[in-house]
Amino acid sequence: MKKFILSAFFVFTAMPSFAFDGFVGELLLGHSDQKLNASAKSVSNSDSGVTKSGLVMDGSATSYGIQGGYQFNNYFAVELGYQQYGEFTSLVNNFVRVTIDTSSINFGVKGILPLSENYSLNARMGVANWDLNNTSSVYAPGSDIDNIKGNGSDIYYGIGAQYKFNGNYFVGLNYSVLTMRWDTREDFPSGVFLVDYEHKVKNIYFSVGVFF
Length: 212
What we know:
Largest sheet: 8 strands, antiparallel, barrel
CATH class: Mainly Beta
Strand order of the largest sheet: 1-2-3-4-5-6-7-8
Number of strands: 8
Number of domains: 1
Number of helices: 1
Order of helices and strands: HEEEEEEEE
Structural class: mainly beta
Distance between the termini: 28 Å
Helix content: under 10%
């Protein structure tokens, strides 16, 4: 028994530093590029099927978040996290200013490819439960712009690289994409329209983490 314990000890201590299973926590800080597209189709009896000109807003913001998970082995982990993608302000039609902020709660899996004892590549995919809110607007008389709000669940995906220090600490650089899609029924002065929204968030972020 003693020989077995000693043999197991030397085997595990000789394994690469990424050979670790257990709980992990991360702090995230980065930069998001966001773009909102909206198009409306009339559902009024008089002009059913008529498409209203699209609305486009884009901008960038500082993103931040927190993430935790469990790594089962060298190659696979599950994660749960909160990501705040920040807020951006866009000028619409040169007279309406709209500020939008977005966030999500993400649950997904992480595939890991160890390159050495300290370096690894990874790929992520999961489901994001997201929220998008219009926090402030400046309205102009006769404008069709209204408060923009949405929530739902969509797939996110991403890639990244990670470096593990001696001990249980690591840093990473990651890139993720989330496309939020939803629709609403709106009453405009020109009629009743079904508005389709698509908001894409491209987020590049730095992470600092620790294994527990």
